Structures are given as C-alpha cells and as structure tokens.
C-alpha cells in the first residue's frame, strides 16, 4: 500500500496509489506513485517535528467545547484532485497517543467537482477502508489533536490513502 508521510519541510505528503495524473491548476500534478505535498490550508496550534510528525505546539489555549484537555490543535488540508472517480478509500496511518485519554481524530470530505463538498466524515481509528455512498474525484482531510497533559502530545507520524 502507498503511504502519506508527514514531512517537516512541506507539510503532509501524500503518496497516491491507483491514479494517473491530474491536470487541474488548483492541485499539484500527480503521477501514479509520486509523492506530492498535501498542503495544510489551515492550522491551529500544530507544528512539525524534525522527524516529520505532525504534533501540537506549546499553546495551552483550549476552546471550551473540548472539555477538560490541556492542549488542542487542528488542521485542514487543501483539496486534492484525483483523475478518476472513486468510492472506496484505503487508509493507512500511524498515530502515537501518549496516554489513553489523548486523541487524534481524522475526518475526510469529498466532492465530485471541487466546489460542492460533503460534510466531514470521521475516519474510525481502526478503519482500513472507507466506503463512500456516492463517487467522488476530490478529497480533503481535517484532523483534531487533543492532549490531557502539557508534557507529551499526540502525533500523526504517517498517513496514507489509496483508491482501489
């Protein structure tokens, strides 16, 4: 399976499998099996470690909606176009949680045209496949990191998708 790695230089990097090339100007040109940057569109209280893992920064500002946690962070990626429609997404990820009460929740949203998007759908921690109800050719991701201590943080060490 191809993987999406986290890179300290360019942000999240996606290795797509099962696609050819794109010709859209709002997304990088993608060749099958080529690594390209999956750029963060919006990020709050997150940073990249020298290892490339995405983690929380040192901020301790937490919105009340997240309850009794010590640190909070979130990110969204820019939309990425795949040159064919897909209804199944194969997932691979490596997440580090320092305590059982910490969390790193991932969600995805899809689109047929890159303009009208589905609601974000949570990706279950143990899910290997995500089946969509309708075909799509665009995808974007969102993540929320929550830490119960100020000493250690959840980390997104690797994330990958393919379209079987």
UniProtKB/TrEMBL annotation:
The keyword Signal applies. Keywords: Signal. PROSITE patterns: PROKAR_LIPOPROTEIN. It comes from the Bacteria. Residues 1-22 form the signal peptide. This is Lipoprotein. It comes from Tumebacillus amylolyticus.
């Amino acid at each position: 399976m191809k993987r999406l790695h986290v890179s300290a230089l360019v942000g999240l990097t996606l290795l797509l499998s099962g696609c050819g090339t794109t010709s859209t100007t709002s997304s990088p040109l993608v060749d099958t099996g080529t690594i390209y940057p999956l750029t963060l569109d919006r990020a709050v209280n997150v940073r990249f470690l020298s290892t490339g893992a995405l983690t929380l920064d040192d901020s301790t500002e937490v919105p009340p909606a997240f309850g009794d946690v010590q640190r909070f962070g979130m990110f969204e990626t820019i939309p990425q176009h795949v040159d064919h429609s897909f209804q199944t997404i194969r997932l691979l990820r490596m997440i580090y949680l320092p305590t059982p009460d910490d969390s790193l929740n991932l969600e995805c949203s899809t689109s047929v045209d890159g303009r009208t998007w589905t609601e974000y759908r949570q990706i279950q921690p143990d899910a290997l496949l995500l089946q969509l109800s309708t075909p799509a050719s665009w995808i974007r991701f969102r993540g929320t990191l929550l830490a119960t201590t100020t000493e250690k943080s959840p980390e997104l060490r690797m994330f990958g998708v393919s379209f079987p």
